[in-house]
Specification:
The protein contains two helices and five strands, in the order ββαβαββ. The chain is α+β, with helices and mostly antiparallel strands. The chain has one domain. The strands form two sheets. Strands 3-4-5 form a three-stranded mixed sheet, covered by helices on one side. Strands 1-2 form a two-stranded antiparallel sheet. A hairpin with a 2-residue loop joins strand 1 and strand 2. The chain is globular, with a radius of gyration of 15 Å.
Length: about 100
């Protein structure tokens, strides 16, 4: 892996410290490379990214999705040619889905 800081490898989970947005992007890139065989073969496959935005809290509390991580995942998928990416947000009574139109590099 690149300059990522793996701090724990416990059972089926790995934990990283990423203290800068560049490190977040590098870590996400490394994870995608490690597990690329799990990605859909078709670049037209529908991919749903489900966010946890259930509260008006700072992502650093661990109670909501860090948007820097979402940006890194979207960037990596887009860079790999996936075009049918959907970002979803769930609330208690409804489900809202926003289709992203990402620019091609």
């Amino acid at each position: 892996m690149t300059d990522t800081a793996l701090i724990a490898d416990y059972q089926d989970y790995q934990y990283y410290i990423c203290d800068h947005v560049d490190k977040i992007f590098a870590t996400v890139r490394d994870i995608f490379c490690k597990y690329e065989d799990l990605l859909p073969a078709s670049r037209q496959a529908k991919i749903l990214i489900k966010l946890n935005l259930n509260s008006n809290m700072n992502a650093l509390t661990g109670n909501t999705t860090d948007l820097r991580l979402v940006a890194a995942v979207l960037s990596e998928l887009n860079g790999r040619g996936y075009e049918n990416i959907i970002v979803g947000r769930e609330r208690v009574v409804d489900f809202i889905v926003i289709k992203l139109m990402l620019p091609r590099d």
